[in-house]
Amino acid sequence: MSNGKLLLADNNADYRSSLLPLLRLEGYEVEEADSVESAIKKLETMPVDLALIDLRLTEDGDDHDISGLEVAKRAGERRIPAIIITAYPSVETTRLALRARGADPSLAVDYVLKRPGPDALLASIAAVLRQRQEPNYDLVVDAERGDVSLRGKPLRLSRAQFALLAHLYQRRGAVCSRKELVKAVYGEDMSDTDANLDKRLERLIARVREKIEEDPKNPKRLVSVPGLGLRLESGD
After folding, report:
1. Do domains 5-133 and 139-232 have the same CATH topology?
2. Around Cβ 20, how many Cβ atoms within 10 Å?
3. Residue 160's pLDDT is what?
4. 161-196 burial, b if ≥16 CB within 10 A, otherwise e?
């Protein structure tokens, strides 16, 4: 019995060959992709539980290559979690490099270094797939009907409150950046220096927490992820 189906997207055939037997030994089915195009095609045409994506998917020697994030973005659109595999010396330097290029680090649920070995990657895969088992959400958002209920009881929300929860619910369990949320709620692009929009979003989050949290100061459903954004959890 398979423990899950993985997409391994890396343009380095030797690296893929070194990982494949380890992943299969752990009970995973693995599909390979060696380019952005082939990875996206496989995401769109076959069931995948988790995508493992090389950050430099086009050119290993190019420090400016972050093409793997395009695959992570496509995976996120299909509610498939993505782990970015990186040759940067640390996860923090990876995130700093992405922000310096205007990219969104929260497109991936985790970042794992290629060195020193596969143990961290195997641990991350197991953790993400455990979390992917759908938890019992007592908060339900019906985007088509415009309804939100908590433990079966309907909630009265403003348009902005509904838009925030609808977007988070669509990507529940994944981290949504503040820029992404501002775009989803207000239809505006937020720059890194736009304090007004950020404060507006913060006030909105606080009001939503008052409606869905037992203790809004210690939220269990609408959870902040420092440096990345916001995530909707089951509240268990």
Report:
1. no
2. 15
3. 95
4. bbbbbbbbbebbbbbbbbbbbbebbbeeebeeebee
Q: Is 136 exposed, middle or buried (0-12, 13-18, 19+ CB in 10 A)?
A: exposed
Domain locations along the chain: 5-133, 139-232
Give the pLDDT score at 122. 92
Task: Supply the pLDDT for residue 143.
Answer: 82
- Taking residues 41-49, what's their average pLDDT? 91
pLDDT value, residue 5? 93
In this structure, the strands spanning 153-154 and 147-150 are antiparallel
What is the pTM assigned to this prediction? 0.58
**Which tens digit of pLDDT belongs to each residue from 100-122?**
777 777 778 888 988 878 998 99
Q: Give yes or no for a contact between 47 and 62, defined as CB atoms under 8 angstroms apart.
A: no
**Fold (CATH) for 139-232:** Arc Repressor Mutant, subunit A (1.10.10)
What's the rounded mean pLDDT across residues 136-160?
A: 87
CATH topology of domain 5-133: Rossmann fold (3.40.50)
Nearest CA-CA partner of 1 in 36, 37, 43, 29: 29
Distance from C-alpha of 125 to C-alpha of 119, rounded to nearest angstrom: 10
Rounded-to-integer distance, Cα 204 and Cα 202, Å: 5
Q: How many other CB atoms sit within 10 Å of the CB of residue 207?
A: 15
Tell the burial category of 21 from Cβ atoms under 10 Å away from its Cβ (0-12, 13-18, 19+). exposed
Length of the chain: 236
Q: Are 57 and 36 in contact (CB under 8 A)?
A: yes
- Count the Cβ atoms, other than its own, within 10 Å of residue 121: 19
